[in-house]
Specification:
By secondary structure, the chain is mainly alpha-helical. It is about 65% helix and about 0% strand. It contains five helices and no strands. It has helices at about 5-25, 30-35, 40-80, 90-100, 120-130. Helix 4 (about 90-100) runs parallel beside helix 5 (about 120-130). The N and C termini lie far apart (about 65 Å).
């Protein structure tokens, strides 16, 4: 069902398409001649347009970065709100998990000192180990399986 608003939009869209086609069909020299009476001429207008477009791109990029940061923060929040209720013994649990790993599973902290890791880092690694099946959900509360 076509409403009057949809018909107006379609008409406006066709008009925009026609204007754009006409603009692209116009020779460059004819377009540049339109700026002879404009203060600063075509060069100044082009510079202003580039600045406007640059500002728009910068604004869009900042919005994308803001959205990405919000997504990352939400991911970290959901990850740190993990099933481990008491964060005081995360390091002990992590050490027990590493010690209990079978010999064919080699886990290292890859040139990082454990003391440099935050509780959130340790919690994240425990969750990663759980996802890999090395650290079971029943081990979360310090119980062995």
């Amino acid at each position: 069902m076509n409403s009057p608003d949809n018909k107006k939009r379609e008409t406006l869209s066709r008009l925009v398409d026609e204007l754009v086609e006409d603009l692209f069909a116009t020779p460059d020299q004819e377009l540049l001649s339109e700026f002879t009476d404009v203060p600063g001429g075509a060069a100044k207008n082009a510079e202003e347009m580039r600045a406007l477009f640059g500002g728009s791109v910068l604004k869009a990029n900042k919005e994308r970065l803001k959205a990405a940061k919000a997504g990352a923060a939400a991911s970290r929040t959901s990850r740190s709100a993990a099933p481990l209720s008491d964060l005081t013994d995360i390091r002990q649990r992590f050490r027990r998990t590493l010690a209990a790993c079978p010999p064919e599973v080699k886990l290292t902290l890859a040139a990082r000192n454990e003391n440099e890791l935050s509780d959130a880092d340790m919690l994240g690694m425990l969750q990663d180990l759980e996802e890999l099946g090395i650290f079971g959900p029943e081990d979360r509360d310090g119980k062995s399986s």
